[in-house]
Amino acid sequence: MDPLPTPATQAGRDGLAALLAKPRTAVIGLDFDGTLAPIVADPEQARAHPDAVPVLAALAPKVAQVAVITGRPAGVAVRHGGFAGVPGLAHLTVLGHYGAERWDAVTGTVSAPAPHPGVAAVRAELPGVLDRAGAWQGTWIEEKGRAVAVHTRRAADPEAAFEALRGPLTDLATRHGLIVEPGRMVLELRPPGMDKGVALSEYVRETGAESVLYAGDDLGDLPAFAAIDKLRSEGLPGLLVCSGSSEVSELAERADLVVDGPEGVVRLLGALADQLG
């Protein structure tokens, strides 16, 4: 049994204490890529850490809800996570596309509104934009249904390609009513109005949670961190966990607790499950 680590901040220690005192009113929020699943060069090959599902199945029945909040389509996260049909995961929800899609373990179905028309327009223009930016070589497009992402991790100089594309992709997104969400060597073009902070805040209110833990690893998780900061200012205890990464320092600087990537997240969740008996 791993011991529970001690958060570095008083707010984090208060959040952990509240979760342990009343786990049945706690929500556990988790990013997927980089948090439950190791980052890989091809996102289609990403899979949850092998111990993630067993640990979640042990923890979920002891808390109010576990929510996986991801930019991926909900169904993709469910498949890559191996979440469907697992005993013990009845309290699991996947909020895909930053909350625009929702999969509940109880029903096993995905609910979602109609897609934003700007996504199709951007998808059609994107190859030409990449070609004109001189950044096509080594970059590739990920189709995400309600969004589209451009990855530069395979380029000869990933950071240079990332910076070269930021402006042109922002212009393209703006023309079609979308926004650009930067991440770890990826720029995602998606509809505005939803982010992980909005999704997490709405879910906490929906469930009536009295405490919340959120773990993430990338820039897209900063809105969720901000949401917990706001909830804490309103009197709801919360714990911010960074799934450590040398590529993104902003989260580590704001987190109450930094763990060693998905392996560390799994150990933390396992320690929580053990502590809750």
Mean pLDDT: 93
Strand fraction equals 15-25%
Characterize the overall form.
globular
**Count of runs of 4 or more consecutive helical residues:** 9
Physical arrangement of strands within the biggest beta sheet = 5-4-3-2-1-10-11-12
Helix fraction, binned, reads 25-40%
Largest sheet, in brief, is:
8 strands, mixed
Distance from N terminus to C terminus (CA atoms, Å) equals 12 Å
How would you describe the overall organization of this protein?
The protein contains 9 helices and 12 strands. The protein has helices spanning 10-21, 52-59, 74-81, 117-132, 158-175, 196-207, 222-233, 250-254, 261-275, and strands at residues 26-30, 65-69, 92-96, 101-104, 109-111, 140-143, 148-151, 179-183, 186-190, 211-216, 238-243, 257-259. The strands form 2 sheets. Strands 5-4-3-2-1-10-11-12 form an 8-stranded mixed β-sheet, with helices on both faces. A 4-stranded antiparallel β-sheet has the order 6-7-9-8, with helices on one face. Helix 2 (52-59) packs parallel to helix 9 (261-275), helix 4 packs across helix 5 (158-175) and helix 6 (196-207) crosses helix 7. It starts with 9 loop residues before the first helix and ends with a helix.
Summarize the structure.
This protein has helices at 10-21, 52-59, 74-81, 117-132, 158-175, 196-207, 222-233, 250-254, 261-275, and strands at 26-30, 65-69, 92-96, 101-104, 109-111, 140-143, 148-151, 179-183, 186-190, 211-216, 238-243, 257-259.
Descriptors:
277 residues; alpha/beta; eight-stranded mixed beta sheet; 12 strands; globular
